UniProtKB/TrEMBL annotation:
Top enzyme category: oxidoreductase
Membership in a protein family: Belongs to the ribonucleoside diphosphate reductase large chain family.
Protein species of origin: Lentilactobacillus rapi
Coiled-coil zones: 327-354
Gene name of the encoded protein: nrdE
Highest taxon above the source species: Bacteria
Domain Ribonucleotide reductase large subunit: 558-580
CDD domains named in the record: RNR_I (cd01679)
Record field: catalytic activity: a 2'-deoxyribonucleoside 5'-diphosphate + [thioredoxin]-disulfide + H2O = a ribonucleoside 5'-diphosphate + [thioredoxin]-dithiol
Lineage of the organism: Bacteria, Bacillati, Bacillota, Bacilli, Lactobacillales
Keyword Mitochondrion on entry: no
Listed name of the protein: Ribonucleoside-diphosphate reductase
Enzyme Commission code(s) on record: 1.17.4.1
Amino acid sequence: MSLHNLTDTSYFDLNNEINIPVNGQIPLQKDQEALQAFLDKNVGPNLVKFDSLKDRFDYLISHNYYEKDFISQYDFSFIEKLYAYLKEQGFHFKSFMAAYKFYAQYALKTNDNDSYLETFLDRVAVNALYFADGDENLAMNLADEIIHQRYQPATPSFLNAGRENRGEFVSCFLIQTTDDMNTIGRTINSALQLSRIGGGVGINLSNLRAAGDPIKHIEGAASGVVPVMKLLEDSFSYSNQLGQRQGAGVVYLSVFHPDIISFLGAKKENADEKIRLKTLSLGVTVPDKFYELIKADADMYLFSPYDVEREYGQPFSYVDITKEYDNMVANDNIKKTKIKARDLETEISKLQQESGYPYIINIDTANRVNPIDGTIVMSNLCSEILQVQTPSTVDNEQHYIKLGKDISCNLGSTNINNMMNASDFGHSIETMVRALTYVTDHSNIDVVPSIQKGNHESHSIGLGAMGLHSFFAKHHMHYGSPESIEFTSTYFMLLNYWSLVASNKIAKERGKTFDNFDKSKYADGSYFDKYFAKSFAPTSDKVKALFADDMIPTKEDWEALKESVMKYGLYHQNRLAVAPNGSISYINDTTASLHPIINRIEERQESKIGKIYYPAPYLSNDTMPYYTSAYDMDMRKVIDIYAAAQEHIDQGMALTLFMRSTIPAGLYEWKEGRTDKMTTRDLNILRNYAHKKGVKSIYYIRTFTDDQQEVGSNQCESCVI
């Protein structure tokens, strides 16, 4: 029997029985029966067996399944010791979905896809050995973190570690173009190259001149951003990793760019086929000034990037529009277009209702709390990466006259429930930071020099979290309650503190910091002011009981950390970011990211398989009242949770808002006496609330329609799978 010739797939039938109540109860035992049947009927017969561990590694290396170099860094007796430890931990999947996802998408298979060459334990061992880079102590620590599922590397890292034929370890990339044909051409080439090697690509188009702007003083010659968007969409479609996955990209535009209406219109279902974008994602960067103009119900001006760059001597994205708005309005040398701010706000909401786009980046919010010297101008395909960039200049031969700085994303995630059971929170975080450091140190994207430069100079990583809602349910906290907000704040304060400690320790060991550390708010100590002005330790008895006393840093601890950071620096320019992490959360048997669940029994449509059902982690009669669907929840509660985390996260979070096309009665007070249908006003209010609460970005708007369909499905495979 082989994976191509399975004769007994009763595990799918058993799993589907979860969705058939018995005496009014959910038969959760059917999921355990499905899990066991899957392991017995699918995995067991199709797992390649070896006489010894040494025979296994020899075979996988000689047949070009594993790289040889990372294995040769260790004495084989140590590898046997590591495997013995992993086996002692008695790991087992807790759900059918977890096992199915791992073996379908992550386990190494033979070249003909007929048999499995790895178990979960094997993948953990290879990750530990690979990212420890010959350090036996780190390898043991990393194996401990992953096998107990306190740490989950991002899919590109977890999937590709150790494989001879692999993609990159990084999850996504951010690049920008400036206002000339050479740079546009270089950007398209970069998009092709980055899409080829893996990961989603974010591209900032705000610096491009608008339709009708002059080219060499010929009035009305420029075509604007939409044709460039079409070129990029075709590039991603073409460069799809040999058909393994659809190339994925997002383009960002400033809300004050004159092409903003046509930019949004290109994503509409009824857009002309010549301009309609079918697969490219859209994001809008929104300064504070837009919210001010909305509040005042005022006119707003859209400014020619071509003229702004000539007047200010820097690309449009780097001009502080909130600060310079009145000066730009008064400047006759800058061409401008007048519209109503609330009309544009409504257009954004209309498109979000229809498609889930655009993402919203509150760009002034991101820059206001940015501790790094420089300007954040955009985000990535999942809206959680927010780092400074500098623009490049390219000559007629496509050589860099001035090499700017762009971004690659190196991600991983803590599992909140399992981290709260960790014996040493700080030790666990240091192990994770060191694993992520390996990725940034060994990433060398030479096909796009600005990405390579950014990575080599910043050493940035993005450690995040998953499983927040399942933790709340397990501990009888309602999502969005005061206690849940308090827990979230304390957890991410700890994540921030211990990642700072780890980065500082690595900088001290190596005698090296990220580029321009001396110009950061870390170097002058001002970054730490908020931790002296306010305590983020828990105050309620319930949350206090969840955190051991020795886990909470005191003011003296913060003072010691501040002094050490000012003296020795930080190795990583950026440390924290919360990705949407979808399918990888199933393997961890936890809920995705910081989001509330959608259903207590989630239904997933798997290609060539049909429907698979996944019960929420820890689901029981005891926890059921605490598992409210996101679609039945006031989204201000979600925003409040994310705002509590954002206080401590130096980058961003992939915050999705979940709406019903018919809104349940009593959910939002402003709906009283009005239609119960979701309107653009509802989204306007929620976006303004998120901005007021200090949230840096809003990812998708997902709408559950009256005909049981979802609008705004997630396409960011790099972070999600």
